[in-house]
Amino acid sequence: EAARLIRGPGSELRRFLSVYYFGLQEMLTKVEILREELRLEDDDCPIEHVGSRLKSFESLTAKVARKGLPLELDAVRESVLDVAGIRVVCSFVSDVYLVADMLTRQPDVEVLETKDYIAVPKANGYKSLHLIVRTPVHLSTGPVWVPVELQLRTVAMDSWASLEHKVFYKWDRDVPAELRAELLEAAHIADRLDATMQRLHREVRATAP
Ligand code: 0O2
């Protein structure tokens, strides 16, 4: 999908998006190397799966409109920091912070913004750790630091978020109150699952032969 977007028509947009595509590849490589290394050390890898996307042109223009910005590439460059996005799904809540720390300790990864929706969930029940980081991409003209949004969450949080996302768009952002309440209850169930899995994980680590 990302590769298709940068080959599309419109060279200015193509150049604009290509820089995010390169930033995405750089950051993705860091995540994949970390994942491989941790997997080699221990079969019990804290990263379950990794996804990535370049924001679609439709989603980008909708966000620009929501923020009341002009549809100009300079304004978008300054104000939309999630054009490139990576989702890292981890086994346990503690792994989310462990992996975030391992990635952001790298000298060429600079944290621009942190939103910890695990510590302070959104009112609808959404939980994830969001980081905006930037990393250098070495172009023919020199280095360009590219922002990438990292979303880190557990399997339970991910499963809740993907269902909620579908419901949200199915109802065109206007989800009936009853359904919202059920989604909130489901988020609490996901929390309890995470807490139990975390406790079992600790017990197994402490007692396994
Ligand atoms: P898509 O399709 O993922 O691109 P800001 O960027 O700070 O101006 P924003 O975009 O609200 O404001 O930032 P935030 O809160 O960090 O959320 C950005 C992304 O997090 C969203 O991207 C979703 O992927 C995810 N997200 C945030 N809140 C929710 C939620 O309540 N439910 C679900 N399922 N996902 C959420 P986009 O831009 O919406 O879309």
UniProtKB/TrEMBL annotation:
Q: Which residues form a coiled coil?
A: none
> Which InterPro entries is this protein grouped with?
GTP_Pyrophosphokinase, NT_sf, RelA_SpoT
Where is the RelA/SpoT domain positioned along the sequence? Answer: 52-175
Q: Name one Pfam family in it.
A: RelA_SpoT
SUPFAM superfamilies, per database record: Nucleotidyltransferase
What protein is this chain from? GTP pyrophosphokinase family protein
This protein's species is: Klenkia terrae
Q: What is the lineage of its organism?
A: Bacteria, Bacillati, Actinomycetota, Actinomycetes, Geodermatophilales
